[in-house]
C-alpha cells in the first residue's frame, strides 16, 4: 500500500504536499531538514531538501521554542509575521541533535528519526473521514480522491490550539479523546498541567482541569450554546456546534462564518480559554473572546447549592429554601461549604422552584433523555423519591425538549444573563414563597395555603404587639432613670466594643516607655504591650497634639469593629478614660510593610513568593472591603505603612480612621476635606475631592509597584529622567522592559510571569481615568492569571512635579512628612 502526506490550507484546499514511496519496493521518500546550519528560529520545510507546495496558509517545518535548542516538527501560519504554532508532532520528545528526518514508512506511518536514525516520534493509523483546514494527513497513495478516509491526521492529536474544523470530545467506540493541553512554558511546548476536554461522566460539558481539579466548566450545551458561556452571543465571527451521536461520537467544534478570517482558540499556560482573530491592520493577533470573564467563572466558588452573581455583594448567596452552611472555624467570606436545605424534602408533595437565566449545575451526577418533554421530565424527577434534586430541558430551541435530571447537591451555579436557561429545583412545600407560585409547580392544596396564611398572620400580629409593648416599657424606664439623676448611656457604650482599663494598658506598655514604642503616625504613637494573661497587643494612643481626635477614633471603631477578614487587622477594644483615647489591636510582630520593602538590607527577607503573597493578600482585603463586607468601605489611606505583617508575613490592612462607607446604591462621593497621603492619592480625589472604590484601587496600584520595585513612589529618582515610580514603570512597560522594575534584592526567587503580571495590573490600577481602572474583583482575577490584560494608559501623577504642585497651594492647610497622612481643608 502506498502512502501520501498532505497539508490542507485554510483558503486553498488544492495546496498539498505528498511523499510517495513505491508499493512494490517499499522505498520511502523522506523529508530531510538539517538543523546544524540554522540561523533563524523557524525554517520552512520548503527551504531544505524537500518538495513542498507554496501559496498555502500553513507550513510544516522544524522550529525551536524561545531560546531552547530543542527542535520540533510543527505546523504554523505561513503568511503572517507573528510566528504562531498551531500543532506540534513531537511535543514530549524533542530533537536534541543537529538534524532530523521526517518520513513515511509502510503502512502509511509518519516517523521522525534523529541523526542516529533513532525513532523519536511516530504516528498511528487511526482512520477519520474529516476534511478540515490546517490539517496534516496521511492518505492512501494509490487513490488521489480526497473523499477517501485518512490513515492518520494531525487534527486527531491537538495541542494547545483548536482550529475551525477540529473536534473536542470523544469517540464512544474506540474511547479516543480529543482534548487541549497548553505548553508547559514559552520555551517548553510539552503538555502543561491543564486540560480542556469533555467531561467523562453524566451529561456532556467541556471542563478545564488543573491536574484532576476542576477550575472552569462551560455548562452543558442547550442546543444554541453552553449555558455558562455568556459571551458567545456577541461572537459574529464563528458558528459553534455540538454533535451528539449516542452510538459513535460526541464532540464540540466551530467553523468560520467568513473564510477570509484567521481564527484560533488557545488554552494558555494559566488555564484560560482565549479566542483570537488576526488583524491585518495591526499585524497582530487580537483577543476576541475569553471564556473566563469574572470571579463567578471560578468553579464551585459558592459551594454546594450556592449561586454566584457578580451584581450582588457578596457575590455568593443561597438558593431559595437553603441557608448558609456556617461552621465555627469558617471564614465568613469563604463560601466553599455552600448551603444546606432549611427543610428537607418530604419525598411527596414537594414543589419545584423555577430559576431563569442560570448556568446549569455540574452534570457529573446527572441523567438525561433526549425524547422527553418538560412535563414528563418533572414527573420523572418527582417520582424518583428524594434522590432527584432538580431538572431542566436539554434543548431550549422550539419551546424546549429533552430532560436533564440531577441526583446530588447542585454545584457551580451562577446567574448567567444572555446564555443561561431555566432550571427547576426541588424544595419542601413549606419553603414556597406564595407570592411567586407563578414560577413554581406547587402541589399544596388550598386548605394548606389558608392554614399557612392564618399562622403567619397571627404570628406577625403577636410579634408587632410584643415589640410595641417592649418599646413602651423601655421609654418609661429611661424617663424614670433621667428623673432620678442617673446618667444616660455614655460614648463608651455606643462603641459596642470591649473597653480596656487605663491602668491595665499603662501596665502592659510599661507606662508607654520608649522601649515599647513601635512607631507613630497622624493619629499618634503606637506601643507594644503585654497583658496580664500574656497576650501581646498594639496600643494606638491619640497624641494631644494630633489633628485627629475622637471623631477619627469613633470612625475607626465603627468601621473595623464590624469587619472580619484574615487580611484586615483585628481590633480588640478601646480605652477612653480620663484624657486618654486609645485603640487596642492584635500585635503584628513584623511591624509594617514599609519597614521591609524600603530598606535595602531588610528587603532581602522578602523574596518574590512572599511579595506576591502580600500583593494578593492586600487585594483580597480590599475586595472584602469593597464588595463582600456588610458595609462598602473606602479606606482612603492605603499605603505601605498601613499594611501590617504578622509572624508569617501575611498582610493585614490597618488604620481605618479616614475610612468612609457607602450605602448599597452609592458608588462615589465628594468632599471638601481631602485626606490621604501624597504619592498614594488618586488624581480625581487629590484635585477635585471625588472618591470611590476606584480611589482605593489607585492606591493599591501604587502599592503593588512599590512592593515589586522596593522603591517609594514619592522621592523616586532616576539618572535618565525626572519621572516618579509610576512614570518610570509605565515607560519601561511601553518599551517592553517591565522586568527592569523588579527589586534586585529579590534575586533568583522571582517568577517572571508573576512579576510581569503584577506590574501590568499595578499600571492598570493607577491609570488617570477612574473608569479605566479595574475593580478590585477584577484585579484579584487578573493577579491570579484569570483573564486577559488590556494595555495600560498613562498613569495619573506621572512625574514628581505633578505631586509637588499639590503642595505649593498657599490656601491649603496641608502637611506631608515622609509618608504621614495629611489633610487638605479645601480641594483644588
From TrEMBL:
Apple domain ranges (all copies): 347-428
SUPFAM superfamilies, A to Z: alpha-D-mannose-specific plant lectins, Protein kinase-like (PK-like)
UniProt catalytic activity: L-seryl-[protein] + ATP = O-phospho-L-seryl-[protein] + ADP + H(+); L-threonyl-[protein] + ATP = O-phospho-L-threonyl-[protein] + ADP + H(+)
GO molecular function, one term: ATP binding
Membrane-spanning intervals of the chain: 12-33, 454-477
InterPro entries assigned to the protein according to its UniProt record, in alphabetical order: Bulb-type_lectin_dom (IPR001480), Bulb-type_lectin_dom_sf (IPR036426), Kinase-like_dom_sf (IPR011009), Pan_app (IPR003609), Prot_kinase_dom (IPR000719), Protein_kinase_ATP_BS (IPR017441), S_locus_glycoprot_dom (IPR000858), Ser-Thr/Tyr_kinase_cat_dom (IPR001245)
EC nos: 2.7.11.1
GO biological process: recognition of pollen
Domain Bulb-type lectin as annotated: residue spans: 36-158
Source taxon at top rank: Eukaryota
Pfam families: B_lectin (PF01453), PAN_2 (PF08276), PK_Tyr_Ser-Thr (PF07714), S_locus_glycop (PF00954)
Protein kinase domain sequence ranges: 512-789
Keywords: ATP-binding, Disulfide bond, Glycoprotein, Kinase, Membrane, Nucleotide-binding, Serine/threonine-protein kinase, Signal, Transferase, Transmembrane, Transmembrane helix
Binding annotation for ATP: 540
Protein family according to the UniProt entry: Belongs to the protein kinase superfamily. Ser/Thr protein kinase family.
Protein name: Receptor-like serine/threonine-protein kinase
Organism: Prunus dulcis (Almond)
Amino acid at each position: 500500500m502506498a502512502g501520501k502526506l498532505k497539508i490542507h490550507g485554510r483558503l486553498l484546499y488544492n495546496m498539498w504536499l505528498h511523499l510517495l514511496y513505491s508499493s512494490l519496493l517499499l522505498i520511502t521518500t523522506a523529508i530531510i531538514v538539517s538543523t546544524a546550519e540554522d540561523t533563524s528560529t523557524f525554517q520552512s520545510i520548503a527551504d531544505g531538501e524537500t518538495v513542498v507546495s507554496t501559496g498555502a496558509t500553513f507550513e510544516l517545518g522544524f522550529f525551536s521554542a524561545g531560546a531552547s535548542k530543542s527542535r520540533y516538527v510543527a505546523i504554523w501560519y505561513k503568511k503572517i509575521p507573528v510566528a504562531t504554532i498551531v500543532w506540534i508532532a513531537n511535543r514530549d520528545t524533542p530533537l536534541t541533535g543537529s538534524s532530523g528526518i521526517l518520513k513515511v514508512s509502510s503502512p502509511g506511518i509518519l516517523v521522525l528519526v534523529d541523526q542516529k536514525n533513532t525513532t523519536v516520534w511516530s504516528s498511528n493509523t487511526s482512520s477519520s473521514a474529516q476534511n478540515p483546514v490546517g490539517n496534516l494527513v496521511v492518505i492512501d497513495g494509490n487513490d488521489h480522491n480526497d473523499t477517501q478516509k485518512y490513515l492518520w491526521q494531525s487534527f486527531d492529536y491537538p495541542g494547545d490550539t483548536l482550529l475551525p474544523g477540529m473536534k473536542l470530545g470523544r469517540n464512544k467506540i474506540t474511547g479516543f479523546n480529543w482534548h487541549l493541553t497548553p505548553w508547559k512554558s514559552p520555551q517548553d511546548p510539552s503538555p502543561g498541567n491543564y486540560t480542556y476536554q469533555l467531561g467523562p461522566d453524566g451529561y456532556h460539558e467541556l471542563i478545564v482541569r488543573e491536574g484532576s481539579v476542576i477550575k472552569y466548566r462551560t455548562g452543558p450545551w442547550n442546543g444554541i450554546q453552553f449555558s455558562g458561556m455568556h459571551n458567545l452571543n456577541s461572537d459574529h465571527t464563528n458558528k459553534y456546534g455540538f454533535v451528539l451521536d449516542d452510538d459513535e461520537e460526541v464532540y464540540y467544534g466551530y467553523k468560520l462564518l467568513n473564510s477570509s478570517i484567521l481564527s484560533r482558540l488557545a488554552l494558555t499556560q494559566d488555564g484560560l480559554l482565549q479566542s483570537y482573530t488576526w488583524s491585518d491592520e495591526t499585524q497582530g493577533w487580537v483577543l476576541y473572546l475569553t471564556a473566563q470573564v469574572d470571579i463567578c467563572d471560578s468553579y464551585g466558588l459558592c459551594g454546594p447549592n450556592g449561586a454566584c452573581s457578580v451584581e450582588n455583594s457578596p457575590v455568593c448567596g443561597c438558593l431559595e429554601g437553603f441557608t448558609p452552611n456556617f461552621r465555627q472555624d469558617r471564614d465568613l467570606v469563604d463560601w466553599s461549604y455552600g448551603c444546606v436545605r432549611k427543610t428537607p424534602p418530604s419525598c411527596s408533595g414537594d414543589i419545584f422552584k423555577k430559576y431563569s437565566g442560570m448556568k446549569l449545575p455540574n452534570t457529573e451526577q446527572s441523567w438525561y433523555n433526549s425524547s422527553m418533554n418538560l412535563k414528563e421530565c418533572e414527573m420523572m424527577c418527582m417520582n424518583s423519591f428524594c434522590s432527584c434534586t432538580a431538572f431542566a430541558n436539554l434543548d431550549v430551541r422550539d419551546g424546549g425538549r429533552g430532560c436533564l435530571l440531577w441526583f446530588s447537591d447542585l454545584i457551580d451555579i451562577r446567574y448567567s444573563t444572555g446564555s443561561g436557561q431555566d432550571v427547576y429545583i426541588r424544595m419542601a412545600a413549606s419553603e414556597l414563597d406564595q407570592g411567586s407560585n407563578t414560577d413554581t409547580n406547587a402541589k399544596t392544596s388550598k386548605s394548606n395555603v389558608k392554614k399557612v396564611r392564618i399562622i403567619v398572620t397571627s404570628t406577625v400580629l403577636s410579634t408587632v404587639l410584643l415589640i410595641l409593648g417592649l418599646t413602651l416599657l423601655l421609654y418609661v424606664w429611661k424617663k424614670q432613670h433621667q428623673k432620678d439623676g442617673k446618667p444616660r448611656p455614655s460614648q463608651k457604650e455606643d462603641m459596642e466594643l470591649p473597653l480596656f482599663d487605663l491602668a491595665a494598658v499603662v501596665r502592659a506598655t510599661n507606662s508607654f516607655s520608649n522601649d515599647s514604642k513601635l512607631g507613630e503616625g497622624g493619629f499618634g504613637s503606637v506601643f507594644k504591650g503585654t497583658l496580664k494573661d500574656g497576650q501581646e497587643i498594639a496600643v494606638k494612643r491619640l497624641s494631644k497634639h494630633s489633628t485627629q481626635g475622637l471623631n477619627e477614633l469613633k470612625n475607626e471603631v465603627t468601621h473595623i469593629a464590624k469587619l472580619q477578614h484574615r487580611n484586615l487587622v483585628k481590633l480588640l477594644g478601646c480605652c477612653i478614660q480620663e484624657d486618654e483615647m486609645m485603640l487596642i489591636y492584635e500585635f503584628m510582630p513584623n511591624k509594617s510593610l514599609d519597614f521591609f520593602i524600603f530598606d535595602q538590607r531588610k528587603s532581602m527577607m522578602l523574596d518574590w513568593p512572599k511579595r506576591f503573597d502580600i500583593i494578593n493578600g492586600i487585594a483580597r482585603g480590599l475586595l472584602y472591603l469593597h464588595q463582600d463586607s456588610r458595609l462598602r468601605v473606602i479606606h482612603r489611606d492605603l499605603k505601605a505603612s498601613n499594611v501590617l505583617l504578622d509572624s508569617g508575613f501575611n498582610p493585614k490592612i490597618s488604620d481605618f480612621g479616614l475610612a468612609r462607607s457607602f450605602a448599597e446604591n452609592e458608588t462615589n462621593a465628594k468632599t471638601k476635606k481631602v485626606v490621604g497621603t501624597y504619592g498614594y492619592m488618586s488624581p480625581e480625589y487629590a484635585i477635585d475631592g471625588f472618591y470611590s472604590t476606584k480611589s482605593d484601587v489607585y492606591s493599591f496600584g501604587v502599592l503593588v509597584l512599590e512592593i515589586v520595585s522596593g522603591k517609594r513612589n514619592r522621592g523616586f529618582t532616576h539618572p535618565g529622567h525626572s519621572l516618579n515610580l509610576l512614570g518610570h514603570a509605565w515607560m519601561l512597560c511601553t518599551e517592553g522592559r517591565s522586568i527592569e522594575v523588579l527589586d534586585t534584592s529579590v534575586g533568583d526567587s522571582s517568577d517572571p510571569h508573576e512579576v510581569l503580571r503584577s506590574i501590568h495590573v499595578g499600571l492598570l490600577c493607577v491609570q488617570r481615568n477612574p473608569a479605566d481602572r479595574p475593580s478590585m474583583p477584577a484585579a484579584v482575577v487578573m493577579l491570579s492569571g484569570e483573564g486577559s490584560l488590556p494595555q495600560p494608559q498613562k498613569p495619573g501623577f506621572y512625574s514628581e512635579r505633578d505631586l509637588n504642585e499639590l503642595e505649593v497651594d498657599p490656601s491649603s492647610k496641608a502637611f506631608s512628612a515622609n509618608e504621614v497622612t495629611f489633610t487638605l481643608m479645601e480641594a483644588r
